[in-house]
Amino acid sequence: MPLAPAPTPLRSLAGIETPCLVLDEGRMLNNIARLRGRLTRLGVPLRPHLKTAKSVEIARAVMDGPTGPAAVSTLREAEVFAAAGVKDLLYAVGIAPQKLDRVTALRRRGVDLCVILDSIEQANAVTETARATGDRIPALIEIDCDGHRAGVRADDPLLAEIGRTLHAGGAELRGVMTHAGESYSCRSVAALEAAGEQERAAAVGCAEALRSAGLRCPVVSVGSTPTAHFARHLDGVTEMRAGVFVMFDLVMAGIGVCTLDDIALSVLTTVTGHRADRGWTFIDAGWMALSRDRGTARQAVDQGYGVVCDSDGRPYPDLIASEANQEHGIIARRPGSTAPQVLLPLGTRLRILPNHACATGAQHDRYHVVSAGSDVVREWERFRGW
Asked: Rounded distance, CA 58 to CA 301, Å?
């Protein structure tokens, strides 16, 4: 039976201990509606990736329905979402043989959990478990579309060999999947569109190669937040996966996928002191709250450890979290800025927009949810673990 969210008392943001994670529900819902509208026009369903959210409440907001579909990056995610009633899940990390017991345990509970792989060794492990349990474990073959990570190429004979191994060994070859990780390095609309087409063409080409080898390939799964927003068409694709679009972050803004006003996630922090001779303001959010992710350092605009906003989420001109120690951070003007120096008063509440929503979220165990136009807060649990 689906889990009901635990009721939490409503509180003002001003009364919340800092540092903590704040989620703007209105922005989140707008981000979800934006991508869903685009994919509807392209004629491809969304399989949202829940690795960023790690929250049952957010999963319910982004999925088609209470049972999915969805993608996850850890079996802990799969177990929590399964307990909440999600039945259609893709475990989108290459399967390790030692984790197949947990996969089959979930499948025995009625969860259609699909794994991914890109080697004969993995395929053999899956088929061995399938035969031992009498369960035709479904698998997608991971495709390398851009050299970013793992996967098989369309012209590699290994592709059909893996497919035959799965089919002959008692597992289910369900299809192919790929992720355009190099899209995160794009710096123009043309490059993003090209990355989307490269991703689509690689996955569709591999599906066609499997079919030409006499193997079924019903699922052609692609996905990254940049390509989901910029692919010109998705002919031959059966589903789109994306995750960080729910929250967005500074890396996505630097690529041009969103603006600062779309970022739904921030870290609430408090000013704790100053070093006026250096133009520094100290805050109680260090890398334990913000994460060490410095993804924007490789972009045209380096956002330090995050963009500084007032307590309502409005950015200050050129003010960033320039340094982060374990439990305190330093706010200063961006290098080269001509904006006036700002030393914010002791006790001032601020919100820091994150470089990488997944990494910053991973530092916290709950969301403090702010509704549009209000600082009334609800709490949504955010789970962790593998």
From this structure: 30
Instruction: Check: CB of residue 68 under 8 Å from CB of residue 82.
Output: no
Sheet with 70-72, edge to edge strand ranges: 46-48, 239-242, 219-222, 172-178, 138-143, 112-117, 88-94, 70-72
What DSSP line would sit under 35-55, residue for residue? HHHHHHHHT--EEEB-TTT--
Taking only the tens place, the pLDDT of each residue in 341-386 is: 888 999 999 999 999 999 999 999 999 999 866 677 889 999 999 9
pLDDT by residue (tens digit) across 185-195?
999 999 999 99
Instruction: Name 274's bridge partners.
Output: 281
CB atoms within 10 A of CB 288: 16
> Are 46 and 35 spatial neighbours (Cβ–Cβ below 8 Å)?
yes
- 196 contacts 230 by C-beta, under 8 angstroms: yes
**Could you give phi then psi for residue 68, rounded to 5 degrees?**
110, -160
Indicate whether this model's pTM tops 0.85. yes
